[in-house]
C-alpha cells in the first residue's frame, strides 16, 4: 500500500510555496497598472468628453481639449509604421528565408540587436542629423515619423524573425521537394502560418511609437499649434504637429494653472488608445490562431 | 537496359565529415532499386543530391556527376523543373497546413497548372494511386495535417506523384506507419514501377527483398555492393559485410 514519506510531504509543501510565491509576484506586477489606470480615470472623469477629444487646447494650453496632439500622435504612429512595417517584415523575410550565413547577415543581425538597445534620445539626435538637416525635411511629421520608424524597425525585424522561425522547417523542405521556389513557399506556406505573429509584433510597436517623446521633440513635434477641429486631414506631413506625449509633458511641467484633470485626461487618452490597439492585436491574434493549421 | 540515372565518383562532405565517398552506380529505368545500410551510411544524402536539395544545406559540398537521362543535373538551369521530375517521400510524413486537395494540387499549381477540371482529375488520380482516395474523397477540404500518421504518409506519396515524376524516391517511408498500411503502399509501388523508376531507401532489409529489382548496400558513405536482389540476399553476396548486415550479425 502507498504511504506518504517525508520526502513526498516536503515535495508537496514546496509545490504550494512555489505556487503562492509566483502568484504574489504576478500580482505585484498587475497592481501598479490597475492603480495607475484607476487613479488617472478618477482624476480625468470630470474633463473627459467628446468635446475634450475633439477641440484644440485653449488659453495657452490651460484649458480646452487635446484634438491637435491626439491627431498628431495618430499621424506620427501611422506614418512611421507605414515605413517601418514593410521594410522590417521584408528584411526579416530576407534574413530568415533567403540569406545564407555570411558576414553580411552576421553584421545585419548584430546591428538589429544593438539598434534595439539604443536609447531613444540617441535616435532623436540621429533623426535631427539625418532627416531634419541632411535630407532637408526640416522639422516635420515626416522627419519625426522616420525617426520613430528607425527606432521601431529593429524590434519589428526581431519579432518577425521569431514568427518566421516558428514555422517548421519540414514544411519548407516539403515544398522545395515539390519543385516550389523559395518565394512560392514563402507566399503559400510560410507567411500564412506566421502572419499572426508578424502582425502582433508590428502592432505592439504602435504603443512604443505613440509613447516616445524624445525622438519627436527635436524632429517634428511642437509645443503648441492649432488645427481645424474634427478634420482628420488637418495636418500636412511636411509640417510640424503636436503630440500627446509631448503635450502631457508640457502641461504637466511647463504651464501654470492648468485646468484640474486635463493632464490626467491627456494621459488616459494616450494609455487608452495604446490599450485599445493592443487589445485589437490580441483579438486579431486569437482569430488568426484559430485558423492555425497544424 | 536503359540507364535512368548515372552516378559517377559522387563525393559529398558536410564540413569536415564525409557523407559519400567516390560512389558510382547506375539506376535502370523502371526498376525498384533498394538502398539499404545502417544510419550515417549516406542514403538520405544520396537522395538530396539527386533532386538538388542538398543545395539548401549550407555546409554541404559535392563532387562528381549525376546524370538524369544522360544530362548532368548540375548543368540544368531549371532546378524547379528537375525537382518536379523527381518525387520525394521523406521518413516522417509532412502534411502541409493546407486542405487535402490543396496538398496534392500544390506542386501542379506551383508549376503553373490552373485549370480546375485538370486539377480535380489529377488530385483524384494521385490519391487513388496512393491508396488514400476512398478514405478522404468526402472530405477533401479538411486539413491534411488532421489526418492520421499513416494517412498523412499516403498523402505525401500522392503529393510526390502529383507532379508526375519520372523517378520516385522513398526515404524510409514506412517508419511512421503501421504494417497493414505499409503492405498496401508496397502493392502501390509494384504498380507504379511500370510507369517510373523507384529508389527505395529502407532500414527494413526484408522490404528491399520483397520489392527491389536490385539492391545496393551502403556503409559509412561507401557503396559496398550493388547487384540483383536475389544475389544480395543469397548466401553468397560478393562482400562479407553485405551478408553480415542482412543476416544481423553485423559488427
Walk me through the structure.
The complex is a heterodimer of chains A (294) and B (251). Chain A has 294 residues and is mostly helical. Chain A has a single domain, classed as Orthogonal Bundle (MetI-like fold), CATH 1.10.3720.10. In chain A, 71% of the residues lie in helices and 1% in strands. Chain A has a two-stranded antiparallel ribbon with strand order 1-2. In chain A, a hairpin with a 4-residue loop joins strand 1 and strand 2. In chain A, helix 5 packs across helix 6. Chain B has a 6-stranded mixed beta sheet, with helices on both faces. Chain B has a single domain, classed as P-loop containing nucleotide triphosphate hydrolases (Rossmann fold). Chain B starts with a strand and ends in a 5-residue tail after the last helix. The longest helix of chain B has 14 residues. At the A-B interface, helix 7 and helix 8 of A face helix 2, helix 3 and helix 6 of B.
Task: Please identify which CATH superfamily of chain A we are dealing with.
Answer: MetI-like
Q: Give the structural class of chain A.
A: mainly alpha
Please state roughly what percent of the residues of chain A sit in beta strands, choosing from under 5%, 5-15%, 15-25%, 25-35%, 35-45% or over 45%.
under 5%
Distance between the termini of chain A: 44 Å
In CATH, what is the class of chain A? Mainly Alpha
Q: Give me the side-by-side strand order of the main sheet of chain B.
A: 6-7-8-3-9-10
Succession of helices and strands of chain B: EEEHEEHEHHHHEHEHEEHH
CATH homology superfamily name of chain B: P-loop containing nucleotide triphosphate hydrolases
Name given to the CATH architecture of chain B: 3-Layer(aba) Sandwich
- Number of spatially distinct domains of chain A: 1
Overall number of strands of chain A: 2
Number of helices of chain A: 12
- Give the integer mean of the pLDDT values of chain A: 89
Stated plainly, the CATH topology of chain A is called MetI-like fold
The helical percent of chain B reads 25-40%
The total count of helices of chain B amounts to 10
- Quaternary class: heterodimer
Largest beta-sheet characterization of chain B:
6 strands, mixed
